[in-house]
Write a structure and sequence with these properties.
By secondary structure, this protein is an alpha/beta fold. The chain is built from 12 helices and 9 strands. It has 2 domains: 189 residues, SPOUT methyltransferase, trefoil knot domain (Alpha/beta knot, 3-Layer(aba) Sandwich), CATH 3.40.1280.10; 63 residues, Helicase, Ruva Protein, domain 3. The strands form 2 sheets. A 7-stranded parallel β-sheet has the order 5-4-3-8-6-9-7. Helix 3 packs parallel to helix 9 and helix 7 packs across helix 9.
Length: 268
């Protein structure tokens, strides 16, 4: 069964692709999982993260403004996972790292004031692997010292934490990558695909354009005061993220906003 992902790339359902290529279905899905490291400062952690990924069958590593990369220390710490480093993409923004994804999980150690739904790493991995039928998904990690910024969390569709000892929640970056990679593999290997056709989920770019359109329309309707937005916009982001919108649903919502705005202008 063929189709197109939301970013226009042709894809086939994993079990069909597996039959055609000889690659196990779980490997096909895990191949669509990106590990995104935002502003990593230690090249050794990059190498250790690559090693953690390879042990669980993940291959896509994206680095957002790394302090030092490539670097011999990264190669050494990667052990026999240097091909993951060799194929890593280096970008300058999280938006670029998430381009084309249908779901993005912000990995956090505490609740941010973003109104994003917070789930465990196991729940997040299950949802991500499920969504990977439609296209690439991402696990987003912050810096070793301070984690993700509120804006970086807000750019994702879901927040997830590792249920650590509450008295000591400090985890090395590579260790956190290992846990999420393990949970992703567990979800891919241990669970079957949903029955029937999977919907085409909206990409990160589609969702961001919808939020911009929503904000513009709410200001035009007089529903949102841009000088005093309070928590309306973060709550709208939470609502949209929880809905896991499909491509066609985003088109419907934007068409409705456009029609309502046009009607309001005519009636003024």
């Amino acid at each position: 069964m063929h189709g197109k992902s939301p970013n226009g790339v042709s894809f086939r359902k994993p079990e069909i692709l597996a039959e055609a290529t000889g690659v196990p279905p779980d490997d096909v899905r895990l191949g669509r999982v990106r590990v995104v490291l935002c502003r990593p400062s230690h090249p050794g952690n990059i190498g250790a993260a690559a090693r953690a990924m390879k042990t669980m069958g993940l291959r896509q590593l994206v680095l957002v403004s790394p302090r030092r990369f490539p670097d011999p220390e990264a190669d050494v710490r990667s052990s026999n996972a240097r091909e993951v480093l060799a194929s890593a993409r280096v970008v300058t923004s999280l938006a670029e790292a998430l381009r084309g994804t249908v779901a993005a999980v912000a990995t956090v150690s505490h609740q941010y004031e973003t109104s994003l739904e917070m789930v465990s790493c196991r729940d997040a991995a299950a949802r991500a692997v499920d969504a990977s039928v439609s296209g690439d998904v991402a696990f987003v990690f912050g810096t070793e010292a301070s984690g993700l910024t509120a804006d970086e969390v807000r750019a994702c569709t879901l927040a997830a934490h590792i249920p650590c000892n509450p008295a000591y929640t400090s985890l090395n970056l590579a260790a956190a990558v290992q846990i999420f990679a393990y949970e992703a593999r567990l979800a891919a290997v241990g669970g079957g695909l949903p029955s029937g056709e999977m919907p085409e989920l909206a990409t990160h770019e589609d969702i961001e354009r919808l939020h911009a359109h929503l904000e513009e329309a709410m200001v035009g309707f007089g529903f949102l005061d841009p000088a005093h937005p309070k928590r309306l916009l973060p709550r709208m982001r939470r609502l949209v993220a929880r809905a896991r919108l499909e491509v066609e649903e985003v088109r419907i919502l934007r068409g409705l906003l456009k029609s309502a705005s046009r009607t309001m202008r005519r009636n003024r």
